Amino acid sequence: MSIEVKNLSFSYGDRPVLHDISFKVEKGEFVSILGPNGVGKSTLFRCMLGLLSGYTGEVLINGQNSRKMTARESARQVAYIPQSSNPSFNYSVSDIVLMGSTASLSRFASPGKKDFERCEWALEKIGISELSERCFHRLSGGERQLVMLARALTQNAPILMLDEPTANLDFGNQLRVLEQMKALSKEGYTIVQTTHHPEQSYMFSDRILAVQDGRILHSGSPKEVLTKKNMQRLYAVDVDVLSLYDDHARICVPANIKNKSGGIS
Fold first, then answer.
1. What domains, with CATH codes, occur in the chain?
2. For residues 10 and 52, is the Cβ–Cβ distance under 8 A?
3. What pTM value is reported for the model?
4. How far is Cα 2 from Cα 231, in angstroms, rounded to an integer?
């Protein structure tokens, strides 16, 4: 299952935000849309999800124009995991995860045996079965993100879109969420995330789209995109990009740090 953006542009009134964006994410790919705050990453997601309709260009889900799909049809193909979630009522974790099944139910139907079984499977898959009876409001930020991933699996959509999924999480929870996302992509899920963390993009993504001022600055493999030249241009700061562990990881550091070595130009 693929998702493709073709020549997409969007403006808030007279203020252009996105300019002729084009890319395609294939089945099983993990793609990170990387860039600083305010460059249009979340707006791009809202257009792709149909939450903003005033764009020009096309969003194709497995070759079908998303404008011609109903909300229910779209939900069966694409699951959205927001940056944070705080429902008004303090549902249990199992109730939150079971809500993912609504995309496959008719208007007044209730979840059936298969839906409850899929909910249990999703909780186990993400490794949070022990949280099933906990109140959602009592969870940590990392636990909440894992619950939202489980809900997306219950939705049974092959495309997962995550808007800065590690924002406001501590280091350990960031790794837990990213490792789960990477494992799901290896199982065939198509995953797109927005992020402003270059190092995370390098370690976990198959491909990176670097976005600046509403345009794709560079698109390619992590090794092609995460370079000193690109990071300096993207973030408008003087940085070095250093290689670790035979280039299995790269980090960005201020260029004025002494005794630097291993920079990637």
1. 1-77+157-227 (3.40.50.300), 88-156 (no CATH)
2. yes
3. 0.89
4. 28
